[in-house]
Amino acid sequence: MTTPSKAQKQIALVTGGNKGIGIAIVRGLAREGFTVLLGARDAEVGRAAAATVDGDVRPVVLDVTNQDQIDALVTGVADEFGRLDVLVNNAGVNTLTFRPLEDLPKPTEENVDDFKNVYEVNVFGVVRMITAFLPLLTKAAAPRIVNVTSKRGSIGEAGAWVGQPSMVYSSSKTALNAITVHYARELADTTLKINGAAPGHVATDFNNFRGTRTPDEGAAVAVRLATLPADGPTGAVFEDDTQLAW
Predict the structure, then answer these.
(1) Does residue 48 form part of some domain?
(2) Under a CB-based contact definition with an 8 Å cutoff, are residues 89 and 15 in contact?
(3) Share of the chain above pLDDT 70, in %
(4) 14 belongs to a structural domain
(5) In Å, how far from its chain's centre is CA 17?
(6) What is the number of domains present in the chain?
(7) Buried b (16+ CB within 10 A) or exposed e, 176-197
């Protein structure tokens, strides 16, 4: 992909963009010539992360559970750019984010509060972001939404349930995959494409660095889906180039 001129430069927003897979997606989009808005809950953390990336990367304060912050960012993007070309919903949590456990609990050990905490970010946060930014996305020539999901969210994919997946986390990604398909169907007659990106087992602090892939390897599928051509797919979930039977 050639770098567009300043007048044509595309605008991307990445939630949870300050570390792990998120910062790798930011790097990948910056390399493609995007102006990248790096979403982080803490302003200083966001600034520090943005400083590590070459390109036009701008930190923005964003907590996907905070509607006021989302609305303020929509106004800021509208005033400065008038549109949004790419939205990457990367922010995500699991049960361990909220409970000091050494490992993921058994499904029977997870409770209603765990579901509320995780779904608030992994599912409701995505809906908030899409609802808020859809008017700006529809002003772009070729808008793209990428929802960072997980193979753990698959019901039909062989091997997706090997090991001990968290019921809460896995089901949140199953819900996210379903939402992705519903949005794609609703927007099928537009130029907007929305897909799920499954990064694989990436070594980040999310899993105590137990993964087997690097963040850049995991981020590659999200960057590809963010830059799909007009004849690219929509309403699907991919791990690398493989479409998953979610």
Answers:
(1) yes
(2) yes
(3) 89
(4) yes
(5) 9
(6) 1
(7) bbebbbebbeebeeeebbbbbb
**3-state SS, residue 36:** strand
With respect to residue 1, please indicate whether it lies within any of the assigned structural domains: no
Amino acid at 48: A
Q: What does the block give as tokens for 8?
A: 């044509």
> Strand 193-197 to strand 144-148: parallel, antiparallel, or no bridges (unpaired)?
parallel
Which of 9, 119, 151, 173 is an active site residue?
Answer: 173
Rounded Cα gap, residues 11 and 77, in angstroms: 9
Based on the residue annotation, tell me whether 139 is a catalytic residue of this protein.
no
**H or E element: which one contains 238?**
strand 237-239
- Torsions phi, psi of 121, nearest 5? -95, -55
- Among the listed residues 119, 169, 183, 193, the single catalytic one is 169
Q: Which three-class secondary structure state does DSSP give residue 54?
A: coil
Tens of pLDDT along 44-74? 999 999 999 999 999 999 999 999 999 999 9
Rounded distance, CA 82 to CA 165, Å? 42
Range of the domain at 168: 6-243
Joined together, the tokens standing for residue 94 give 């699991």
Token readout for 220 is 């590659």
Q: Are residues 232 and 193 in contact, defined by beta-carbon separation less than 8 angstroms? A: yes
Whether residue 173 lies in the annotated active site: yes
- 187 inside domain: yes
3-state helix, strand, coil in the chain (%, to 5): 45, 15, 40
Q: What is the pLDDT of residues 177-231, one digit of tens each?
A: 999 999 999 999 999 999 999 998 776 777 667 777 888 999 999 999 999 999 9
26/38 Cα distance (integer angstroms): 7
Q: Locate the DSSP E strands across 78-205.
A: 86-89, 144-148, 193-197
State the CATH number of the domain containing residue 170.
Answer: 3.40.50.720
Q: How far apart are CA 208 and CA 124, in angstroms?
A: 25
